[in-house]
Design brief:
- By secondary structure, the protein is of the alpha+beta class.
- The chain folds into three domains: 72 residues, MutS, DNA mismatch repair protein, domain I, CATH 3.40.1170; 88 residues, Orthogonal Bundle (DNA polymerase, domain 1), CATH 1.10.150; 161 residues, Orthogonal Bundle (hpI Integrase, Chain A).
- The chain has 15 helices and eight strands.
- The strands form two sheets. A five-stranded mixed beta sheet has the order 3-4-2-1-5, covered by helices on one side.
- A hairpin with a 2-residue loop joins strand 1 and strand 2.
- Helix 4 packs across helix 6 and helix 7 crosses helix 11.
- The radius of gyration is 24 Å and the shape is globular.
């Protein structure tokens, strides 16, 4: 697998992110094509300005290619305050021994044989590497107690997110499965996730946002996400052959969970789509970036936020908000929740039921007791 290492540097008195990789023409051309990337003769490396947004954008663009991204050098080292942990210094993880490194690569190939998604493989490999390095630092064998210590020292003390903690637990459990360790003997307690309701736009707010987008390509992409209830990754993977205008459906292939499904093709959106096709003439993927590559998800996110500002919408929204809004508006128009589950590609109806809690129609139908006073 291609490995990209991101390193902080100072170039011409400005902080930059250096992009290091083993020379490969295809990798070089892709990185060179990314917006904001420049070449430094001084450091003999490609780089971007070191900003928070650039760091997120660069990481996302590289992971889209299923490359392993080592960004550890960019992670700020948190200082331990005396009030929190006066007696326990932070643990510095060593480099893995050759034998452990070889075992980690075998674990990675084992997951590939299981045909897990590449993103899952990358994540599980990364968190398992941290765990094995921790075990090496502690000079302990694989035990339930060691897992508990790792959970506390590496995750709880470092104030990692609940989502990241669950990723670590999933990765370790998968590694235990690979090692044929009896999972029942390892009790790994999962934290409860906060049950947050999704942010939803009204139909008029969606219309205002789309009306403030001038670029035809940008408007078509965001209209597709809302009108079909898509994840951004699904929208960017759609090919021309996936649009079935005779049956008025869109074929979503190998989506989350490696599942195919069909979703709606809006008649109003189809008019916009035909205008877009005549203008841009895409050849394979519906939305193509530079040199025929996939269009950038980070660029689409910036387009949405810019349009929302112009429309004077102050809600904290993302591209996924359009998908949430699609589902909620279907529910408010009387669509059976089982159909909504199918259109969204949810495995469980419990996932779709969250939209019943944000439906404006459901809330409006409740008689407020204050009105009876």
């Amino acid at each position: 697998m291609v490995t990209i290492t991101l390193v902080p540097l100072i170039h011409k008195n400005n902080p930059i992110i250096a992009i290091k990789f083993k020379f490969d023409v295809a990798v070089k051309n892709y990185i060179k094509s990314l917006e904001g990337v420049s070449w430094s003769k001084t450091h003999q490396t490609f780089y971007m300005e070191h900003t928070f947004l650039n760091k997120k954008k660069l990481f996302y663009e590289l992971r889209l290619k299923n490359w392993y991204v080592d960004y550890s050098a960019l992670v700020p080292q948190k200082k331990q305050t005396p009030e929190v942990e006066p007696t326990m210094p932070a643990i510095k993880l060593p480099v893995l021994h050759d034998e452990a490194q070889n075992n980690l690569q075998k674990y990675k190939r084992w997951m590939q044989q299981k045909q897990l998604s590449q993103n899952t493989i990358n994540t599980y490999t990364e968190v398992t590497s941290f765990f094995l390095r921790y075990a090496q630092a502690k000079q302990q064998t694989l035990t339930s107690r060691l897992v508990e210590q790792f959970n506390y020292d590496f995750i709880v003390r470092s104030n990692k997110s609940i989502s990241y903690q669950n990723q670590c637990i999933n990765g370790i459990k998968k590694y235990l499965e690979y090692m044929n360790a009896p999972l029942e003997s390892f009790f790994i307690e999962r934290p409860n996730k906060p049950k947050k309701l999704p942010q939803v736009l009204s139909t008029s707010e969606v219309k205002d946002i789309l009306n403030h987008i001038v670029n035809l390509k940008h408007k078509t992409l965001l209209s597709l996400i809302y009108s079909a209830g898509l994840r951004i990754g699904e929208a960017l993977q759609i090919r021309l052959s996936d649009i079935d205008s005779k049956r008025m459906v869109i074929h979503i292939k190998c989506a989350k969970g490696k599942k195919d499904r069909y979703t709606l093709l809006s008649a109003h959106f189809l008019e916009l789509l035909r205008l877009y096709y005549k203008t841009y003439k895409p050849k394979d993927y519906l939305f193509e970036g530079q040199d025929g590559n996939l269009y950038s998800a980070s660029s689409a996110q910036q387009i949405l936020k810019k349009a929302a500002r112009k429309a004077k919408i102050n809600k904290q929204i993302t591209l996924h908000t359009l998908r949430h809004s699609f589902a909620t508006h279907l529910l408010e128009s009387g669509t059976d929740i089982r159909y909504i589950q199918t259109l969204l590609g949810h495995s469980s109806p419990k996932t779709t039921m969250i939209y019943t809690h944000v439906s404006e129609t459901s809330i409006r139908n409740i008689k407020n007791p204050f009105d009876n006073l």
